[in-house]
Amino acid sequence: MKFSKLTQDQQQQLLDRLTIYAERRYTRLGWFKNGRYRSPSGQGPDDVAAEAIVRLIEGRRNYDEQKHPDLLEYLKNSVTKSIVSHIIDSPDFEKRKSMPHILTEDGEIEEIEIENGDADPSLVYMQKDLVERINAILQERFAQDDVVLGILECMKAGIDKPSEIAEYLNVKTKDVNNAQKRLRREFDKIRSTF
Q1: What is the DSSP string of the chain?
Q2: pLDDT for position 179
């Protein structure tokens, strides 16, 4: 469906979903710190999502409904990815080595940066690979636990406060806290095997 045919509520929902997608991209790139998303150029995920829609409206990105029947998927995979790639490729992009987010003792997300950015790339890759493997194991072990799976999804999107997670998942904060405890115990077991 074309953007102009969407209702105002549908347009806002599309913008919200694009923003969450951009937040996930930012999280993967290590552009989430101290509760804030910021790219090296200063743009937030909401800026990237809005820019994707502006490019579509202004005709700078051509949307073919026959080729891409799902507008959201087109905006995510073609437009938003492109905008983020341009930020990465820009001359003012300061490359820094960082390790993806991990779970802390209290269930919060913590980012560990490698000092002075001169880390061995193979070390950074191994650390990222380890986090991805642990995440895959957690996904598998909690396949029947919707709250834990939701927490993992929220963590990827940078949502780490139990109250925000509860609101996002439409459950009680107590349920989120209990699920975080289950997740933390399982995480500790898995981590001890590596």
Answers
A1: --GGGS-HHHHHHHHHHHHHHHHHHHHHTT-EETTEE--TTS--HHHHHHHHHHHHHHTSS---TTT---HHHHIIIIIIHHHHHHHHHSTT-----EEEEEE-TTS-EEEEEPGGG---HHHHHHHHHHHHHHHHHHHHHTTT-HHHHHHHHHHHHT---HHHHHHHHTS-HHHHHHHHHHHHHHHHHHHHH-
A2: 92
Structure tokens at 92: 């003012």
Among 109-113, 154-158, 187-191, the least confident range: 109-113
d(CA 194, CA 43): 37
Residue with tokens 């898995």: 190
Residue 52 neighbours by CB under 8 Å, 6+ apart? 18, 61, 75, 79, 80, 83
